[in-house]
Specification:
The structure is a single chain. By secondary structure, this protein is α+β, with helices and mostly antiparallel strands. It contains seven helices and 16 strands. It has helices spanning 3-14, 27-35, 82-90, 96-99, 200-208, 276-283, 292-323; strands at 39-40, 43-44, 54-59, 64-71, 76-79, 100-104, 116-125, 139-143, 157-158, 168-173, 191-198, 220-224, 230-231, 239-244, 247-257, 267-271. Strand 14 (239-244) and strand 15 (247-257) form a beta hairpin.
Length: 324
């Protein structure tokens, strides 16, 4: 067995990777960056227990939400590569670990003293990423320390393979519903949009009126709300999930949207299963220096929390059925 593959398999035993102020921003770029944080027609997520996999990548000074991501395991977050490129345009010559950190277990836009934060140790962008074509728009962030799992902070399983047309999906991100949103316009809570996944052919048809039908590639997932809500231009890195047996599985991360906040057009996401091998190779954890006692304690914690969440979901479904 190859060493990397061996380490990957061992890591699966304990940790499933699958399964502010504007003054600090340059004015000539701030409108684009601000505009990228909007979502129209979303509803509040009431508790982090509903989306324990959600992460907020935040500017260090001042503390401000930059992009979303999803927890893959106790060291890695998956997000959108484009936001890193945009951030470097604002702060040339500085590195991501010196600019941002990651927050977990919180649905409020504003951070609090008790929130869990992790420093960014390193990151890797997909080798075939194209900013111009918005292809292979995936990045992995590695934390300096171990992410502490609890009922508000948990990894999410990666959905295997494609999803059928008209599958119910859910997208979550922070944002506002105004054309040019200032920080005071952002929603105070994480927003949720429910939609359906549509075929790439249907997505191309809807975008053809904008002469954008050719941007749809094999690794795209498009969602459509038929006028009920919209992902807005550049909502960065937010996770798209599908539910199986009441449990969320990560399908994709935010990639593109055109005609900001226009619910007549679909939003596009980068399907993560198409990048399975790269994610495995890049997010595998070297266990040579691992603290196995701490790892297995975290594993038991996660397993107990996942079981408790599943039991709560069953009780909610039962109560809803009895009510009907």
């Amino acid at each position: 067995m190859r060493p990397l593959l061996g380490l990957w398999i061992v890591s699966l035993v304990c940790f499933p990777i699958f399964g502010g102020e504007l003054d600090s921003f340059e004015r000539n770029f701030s409108q684009n960056l601000i505009r990228s944080k909007r979502m129209a027609g979303g509803t509040d997520v009431e508790s982090a227990e509903e989306v324990p996999y959600q992460a907020s990548i935040r500017l260090l000074e001042p503390d401000r939400h930059l992009a979303s991501g999803a927890i893959l395991n106790f060291r890695f977050i998956v997000t959108q590569a484009s936001f890193i490129v945009k951030l470097y345009r604002v702060y040339p010559g500085q590195e991501l670990p010196d600019l941002a950190r990651i927050r977990f277990g919180q649905v409020d836009l504003q951070s609090s003293a008790n929130d869990q934060f992790q420093e960014i140790g390193s990151y890797v962008i997909h080798p075939n990423f194209s900013f111009i074509e918005a292809r292979h728009d995936v990045a992995l962030l590695k934390t300096v320390g171990v992410i502490t799992f609890n009922e508000r902070v948990q990894p999410i399983v990666l959905h295997k393979g494609p999803i059928p047309d008209n599958t119910y999906v859910q997208y979550t991100d922070w944002g506002a519903d105004t054309e040019y949103a200032m920080p005071e316009n952002y929603k105070p809570r994480l927003q949720r949009i429910n939609a359906i996944a549509i075929s790439n052919d249907r997505c191309s048809e809807l975008l053809e009126t904008l002469s954008l039908g050719n941007i749809i590639s094999e690794s795209r997932v498009c969602i459509y709300t038929n006028g009920e809500g919209s992902v807005c231009t550049g909502n960065a890195g937010g996770p798209l999930v599908v539910f199986e047996n009441g449990q969320p599985q990560l399908v994709a991360i935010m990639n593109f949207a055109y005609l900001a906040c226009n619910s007549s057009y679909p939003g596009g996401f980068e399907r993560l299963w198409n990048h399975n091998r790269w994610i495995v190779a890049s997010a595998t954890i070297d266990l040579k220096y691992a603290n196995f006692e701490k790892m297995c304690r975290l594993t038991r914690n996660v397993a107990a929390q996942m079981l408790a969440n599943q039991q709560r979901a069953v009780r909610r479904r039962t109560a809803a059925r009895d009510f009907l």
